[in-house]
């Protein structure tokens, strides 16, 4: 498994360069590159026996990134259509419900707890990357570590957060119901009233 991770990290710059050229947005490129690494790494963890059978880790990374780009484009189209429709139906949205605010506070508290539990260096790297928007190169230079180390910390922190959010989602009230809005768009629970 460590060999696979090393090999994946060797292709990070090529992947990021490719995504920046393709997307023409360095922030989106960095996000998709990170998500790509997280997905490939998580897949390798879930099926350790299959990790050694990956013939071309580079091809796997680029194919995964390509699929994520397509998913992102589709998601943006749906969000824009939903947002336009929602604005047309309700140009003056009401304040969030008490249930929504309580769930949001619980989510924020859990995020703070999760970040406090991360190893100090991982937390520092993750916050610089996600909260402050620094590039991996800037973080590497600032902390005097390699870009590969930055990528590793961000991937691991992302996986930690994903696991925590999965657990947290099970305990939160449902605030969005699929297929409840017009033409099958999701709708906030308080919009039904």
What does this 3D model show about the protein?
Residues 110-157 form the RNA polymerase sigma factor 70 region 4 type domain. Belongs to the sigma-70 factor family. ECF subfamily. This is RNA polymerase sigma factor. The chain is an all-alpha fold and 193 residues long. The protein folds into 2 domains: 1-93, no CATH class; 94-193, Arc Repressor Mutant, subunit A (Orthogonal Bundle), CATH 1.10.10.10. It has 9 helices and 2 strands; from the N terminus they run αααααααααββ. The chain has helices at residues 2-10, 12-23, 26-46, 48-51, 57-89, 98-117, 120-131, 136-143, 147-171, and strands at residues 176-177, 187-188. It has a two-stranded antiparallel sheet. The longest helix has 33 residues, at 57-89. The radius of gyration is 19 Å and the shape is globular.
């Amino acid at each position: 498994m460590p060999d696979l991770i090393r090999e994946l990290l060797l292709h990070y710059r090529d992947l990021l360069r490719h995504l920046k050229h393709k997307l023409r947005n360095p922030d989106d490129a960095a996000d998709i590159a990170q998500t790509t690494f997280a997905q490939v790494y998580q897949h390798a963890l879930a099926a350790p026996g299959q990790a050694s059978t990956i013939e071309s880790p580079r091809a796997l990374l680029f194919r995964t990134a390509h699929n994520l780009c397509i998913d992102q484009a589709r998601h943006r189209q749906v969000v824009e259509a939903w947002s336009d429709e929602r604005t047309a139906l309700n140009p003056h949205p009401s304040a969030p419900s008490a249930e929504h605010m309580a769930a949001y506070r619980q989510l924020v508290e859990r995020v703070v707890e999760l970040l406090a539990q991360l190893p100090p260096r991982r937390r520092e790297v993750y916050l610089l990357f996600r909260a402050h928007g620094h590039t991996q190169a800037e973080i590497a230079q600032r902390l005097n570590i390699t870009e590969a180390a930055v990528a590793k910390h961000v991937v691991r922190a992302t996986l930690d957060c994903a696991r925590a959010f999965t657990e947290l989602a099970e305990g939160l009230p449902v605030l969005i119901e699929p297929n409840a809005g017009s033409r099958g768009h999701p709708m906030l629970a308080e919009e039904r009233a």
